[in-house]
Amino acid sequence: MSEERFNVVVHHGGTLVTDIPFRYVGGEVTNWSVDPDKWSYFEVVDSAKELGYINVSELFYSIDHILYKLFDDKDAMNMVGIAKILGEVNLFVVHSMDEEPDIIVESELNEPVEDEVVVGVEDEVVVQVEEDEEMAVQVEDMVEENVGVEEEEVVIEHHGQVEEEVVIEEFSSSDDVGVVHGEVDEGLVDVDVNIDEGVLHNDVQGSVSVEYSENESNCDSDTDDSGDIQRNPKDRGLSDDDWESEALESPEESGSEDGVDERQSCGQFGTYVKQKNMSEYKWEVGTKFNDKNEFMEAVRSYAVHAGRNLKFLKNDNRRVRVRCLGAEKKCPWMAYCGYLEGCRTWQMRKILDTHTCSRQFNIKMMNAKWLSETLDTTLLENPNLKITDIRSKALRKWNTNVSLSKARRAKLMASCKLEGSFKDQFTRIFYYAHELLRSNPGSTVKVKVDSEHGPTTFQRPFIGLDGYFLKGKYKGELLTVVARDPNEQMLPLTYAIVEVKNKETWSWFLELLIEVLRDTEVMDAFTFMSDQQKGLQLALEALLPKAEHRFCMRHLYANFRKKFRGHTLKTLMWKAATSTYPQAWEREMLNMKEVNVEAYKHLIVIPPRYWSRSRFTGRAVTDTLVNNMSEAFNSVIVDARGKPIVTMLEEIR
Which residues cross the membrane (predicted)? Predict the structure, then answer.
């Protein structure tokens, strides 16, 4: 879903005066309502051409009455951030006249330039000048052969740009030089020569961009057809949707056998390299990251080193969005990184690398894990490193506050990484013993642990007992024992098939359970939950008289509502069951007596130790009132109960 549209105020058709303060004289003003997802540098250029300006030489935008030149998509994304804060952003269009650039040649011999010259720049250009026709220009990426030349100084003047001096190499016609001769239709060639100041060096280097007509073709050149001027996407940035657009396509298809579409490639963008100091890191649109964690760690390091209060606002398996919360959440800094399906990598899509906030002392993004990774070397050199030393190091190195608990956890994580954790080393004690015997023959090494067949103990000594009828041809009952583990999860223990549920079958089943658990004393400490099964209470009192027994409230209320219906009685019964002390239980029972005496008599017969929390002991470490574990287990095996006995037992197992 696209973001909210923003407003662009376009000033065009006039003259931009770059004095301080700047002003735009004359012209017209046009308002654009723009979708942020479609906003990019090339979109601005195309829109300017739609206004009627073919030769747009420069584009500017302003922040607080200060002009900034619009170079690439990174600047375009800055304009989006400005519009979100100020409500709109101003764009100034500077266009040149549709005429040829003036070329002034200064020669010591004051001789005219010969028909063919080569400009000595990084991407060499061959220019052929004819007396009766307009200039034809053809660009060649590489010239493999060097030519001996004489040097002359040439000043190239173009509209709206600073005058630059480059060296022209003049040479005579030779068979070894690949000069391009093209057929030019008069009036169809538009030559635009620009010197890129960011590429021009003190020596004979520069960049010249040439625009020519589509009718210029059939060039008899010996050079490679793929010698077009290459555009580095990293230099201009990358918008959110342009990473696989036609403007960023790779050169001609290589004709590989697998036929992979070249537009699915990631482009020639930079790959993130971890910096020692991230405070001065320059975020670039198009930068690739191996995975999401690498981007998040880079942002976290930048937040700590630069002292910025950053926060991840969006974090899923497709995108990560982070903003700066400084200056009372008014700081415009933001970054957006997305997953590229075709490349299986992550790439920076948007970045507004401007802070209006001051440095923060408490950085929330500095967690114990990040801090522990910076302590590896320090802790290796100084195993006795104190917690106060860690806090002092963070304050001295990053001007950041670290709490005592965070420093303690960071030291523990770093120690576990260097020396191993206590738990992991205990699991390897047998390997250590065998290694000692192998490396030191004749030694005696003994490791004594508790036997697996020793007394069984439970973190939650709570067991649910239940019985279910079989639905097959031969009837019977399935008795089950379902326990509860320390994580409050269902843990089936035993099950048996009997002909009927009574005291005899329950006693036989409980005797087997005691034999499996191998300790009657342990079983006496258990709490058993049931739904008033026939004969079960008598069997428990005979075999485990000290054990606690509870009735499932769901089944108690099911029997209660057969005689006493109504929401009021239901509420009073559950209030009595959930009472946590005897006086509260007595109060609720008296309230029920005032409402319905027969309901009171029905419940008062059942001892409260079976169904009210006010009489429960603390041995079970749980105050549950229902036997939901057994019911949940029954819902799993309900289909198996209707199958033949062997198939049923196998499915239950």
Answer: none
